[in-house]
Amino acid sequence: MPYRVLNLEEVSDYLHLSLAEVEQLARNQEIPCEKRGKRLVFRKIEVEAWASQRILGLEGRQLKEYEQKSAKAAEEFATSGAFMPELICPDFINPALPAKTKASVLREMTELATSTGRVSGESELLEDLLAREALCSTGVPGGLALMHARVADSGLFTSPFIALGRTVQQIPFGAPDGRPTDLFFLVGCPSDRLHLQTLARLCLMAQTTDLLMDLRQRAHAEGMWQAILSAEEAALEKRAKSR
Fold first, then answer.
1. Is the domain of 102 the same as that of 172?
2. What does the pLDDT look like over 127-171, one tens digit per residue?
3. Are 15 and 30 in contact (CB under 8 A)?
4. What range defines the domain where residue 170 resides?
5. What pLDDT does residue 1 have?
6. How open is the CA angle 129-133-139, to the nearest 5 degrees?
7. What is the pTM of this model?
8. Same domain, yes or no, for 36 and 79?
9. Do 163 and 88 contact (CB within 8 A), yes or no?
10. In this structure, is residue 62 part of a structural domain?
11. Chain centroid, CA 68 distance in Å
């Protein structure tokens, strides 16, 4: 139900923030909301887009704390905490995308995602990805992009997955560091909580392990898949040691 309206308590629970933190964000006009009488209300579609972009911008301790708080969202997939094996396999990876522009990357990644059998409509997904990128680029520093739909529970996905494409050449994708991008994840989750958790987990893996370097060095999809699984294990080990 992407057009649902949420109250303060629901947003607090969804974002893993205290009521006071959400109220402060609202007072500072840092989170989209509106007043109805004395109540603050939040449109789910706007909150989810805001939350996704916030996660992509988190670094260091803030990212680690958020990823830990949101980890319970993945319990339905793996009680050990690792859930990448449930979301991605070598068939979901293309190590040689021929795309040379942002538009062609979006088209080719949509085709790759559709080939997983977990997308309900190819043209609808492409349209949604284009709309998401129009809001703000999903590119992050390090030559990485974490593409995703504007709203997780929009009916676009029949089950959760991650697709990964590596372009033959780096292309401009609007990353905040101004550098080109060559690694493109596409996250598809019908659950909004798992959607946010997956974005946080991928960001944590990219920032705290050698994942990006390994993905560029592996020649084939199988090796890139193994690099993802190893990076998740390494990230979880580091997280456990830092408690």
1. yes
2. 999 999 998 899 999 999 999 988 766 789 999 999 999 999 999
3. no
4. 68-241
5. 46
6. 110
7. 0.89
8. no
9. yes
10. no
11. 15
